[in-house]
Amino acid sequence: MSQEPMSDITSDDKLWAALGYVIPLIALIVLFMEDKKSRPYIKFNAVQSLVATVVLSILSTVTCGFGAVLFLVMLWWAYQAYMGQDVRIPMISDFVRKQGWA
Prior knowledge:
Number of domains: 1
Structural class: mainly alpha
Low-confidence stretches: 1-5
Largest sheet: none
Mean pLDDT: 88
Distance between the termini: 13 Å
Number of strands: 0
C-alpha cells in the first residue's frame, strides 16, 4: 500500500480501523466479526494495533512509564487509518505481514 488513500476502502473500513488504535478492545472485537475481518484493511489495522498495544505496554512497563508517552503515537496512527493511508509502524508492520496474520 502507498501513503495515499486507496479507492476501495469504505468510510466504514476507515472508522473501524481508526477505532482499533484508539480502543484496542474494538480491534479484538473486529477480529471476531465475520463481515469485518473479511475486509483486508480492517483486519490488517486491527491485528497491527493489537501487536502495537502489546509492544507499547511491555515497553511502558520496562521503562517505568516512559513508554506510556508512546501511546500518544497511537492517536496519529488512528488518524492515518481514518484517512485511508497505509499505517506503517517500524518493525511491527513487517512482522504482522511476515506472520501472515493479515
